[in-house]
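Exercise 7.
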Amino acid sequence: MPDSLFELHPAGCLALSAQGVVMLTVEPGAVELRAAQDLFERALLLLRRSQRPKLLLDLRYWASDEPPLISWLLLDWGPRAMASGYLRQVAVLPSAMPLVRLQATQFCLEARRHYGLISRIFCAHPPTAALEWLA
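Solution. The predicted structure, written as tokens, is:
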């Protein structure tokens, strides 16, 4: 288990719920590509340590539609996370921005098709509903 249950990061924060679900929240506004990649790498480490392959991805405040990040998630991070078994189920709290919401949906669909990722996007639901679904 990780030494800390909460970690602040320049691109957002990571936390571990009481149920052992890794929660990744992206910082409001635009986030630099390298910082976002580092945040997702930290989440992968926490997923490995928690030994629970479940992620709550909170994009509600994310205002960036950074195409290189989405490509990196689909082509690099996602395959590593899922092939290793560290990620099997994800709940997404999507951004209000249509393009970011579409990209989150694309990630979930592609990850399901290629790696069998179980995912659900929680539009207009509180975070507790997503956590309950993951539990």
